[in-house]
């Protein structure tokens, strides 16, 4: 076994060298660990739970039956499309490298920055979700009042803890992510079992899960239902983590591709089971939708004070693991982009800790950027306390649009490259959709365009404004930094026209 592993590590190193990169990160993750990091970031106990009130408010109980399923089925198609590219181009740059190789270095540069925007939103959203749940529970235990300020403080402390764990090393984080995957499944079992056997009132009939037409918002049901899809759509983000940790995964062309796909598929199944029983436990949907935290309200009503609090703490700790994994993914993307000099002061963000062999400075930049986004929202709401949107809706909408636009760009470029005969069957890795590849890619793109529009219409227009502001900054960065400093990823381009042709020819041979 040891000889087989050493042989595989050597092959993986040679494979990475073909794309122009040395093996700097510690390659020690197995297939389950690669799956676990994406499964942990998707975290049905974070996205589906923290935005449960959002889904219930706009789409009623039918959001949990129909909304979750509709979103999940389209996301499975997107995940399959991304798995193909991960198998074909196994570098930590992932989306960014795929876009640069299939399109151009400018496509790659914009993809990286748009992905970076989404990653900031997802890290901030996940750890803020943890704080929204943990702060009231801590306040109840220690006798203080939970406010936006105390939530922000806990959010900052959580980010610091996650940064420290990620700095210490990939082995520790990989083990924690392995544990997290089983922990998520175990908590779902505990939660569902508790609601089935210990609920203080009878469960609703099964058809309640699929009732449509009821909304507790001021919008027509059709529009309200579409707005409510944010609950499921934000849950299904971050599964590109399996690709960002691809240079730390053994046999990545197979294992990372399966990690992306299976993390979405299993999240769909376990998430549906969890949402079904939580929703069937609702006694008063109108009261739950208007509560400060709908999920806490439903569980407390169903299970009572002490027992309900214990179950809620189990759920809250799952969010903590989710945040830990998301910082791992984000820092690897930042590291890969920086080693190609895609960011100002790239030498710092691409620096590897000699002791821990992790991108330490990139990790701490992730912490700073994520806190800054939530702090910006906190300041805006302090200045204008009459705002109607929630901080979590703002953060999650930013992450959904940023990430899914970044997911869509390489899929579009792959279709274009195939149409021009530049990307052919020989370029696929061992994980491939075969003849289904093109139609699945097209359906994926249609859904991405649709959902990105839905995520920034009122009441989430603030997220749209924030994204527009970020894109303006990106255009300024294009003029001020891109033209002078960015030569493109080594995986796709060199520094001269001759190098470009040589690299393109090299890719055709891969």
From TrEMBL:
Pfam families: AA_permease_2
Compartments in which it is found: Membrane
Keywords for this protein: Membrane, Transmembrane, Transmembrane helix, Transport
Chief location bin: membrane
GO cellular component: membrane
GO molecular function, one term: transmembrane transporter activity
InterPro entries: AA/rel_permease1
Transmembrane stretches, start-end: 35-53, 65-89, 109-130, 181-199, 220-236, 256-282, 362-380, 392-415, 436-457, 463-482
Keyword Cell division: no
Membrane-topology annotation of the record: Multi-pass membrane protein
PANTHER family xref list: AMINO-ACID PERMEASE BAT1, OS04G0435100 PROTEIN
Protein name: Amino acid transporter
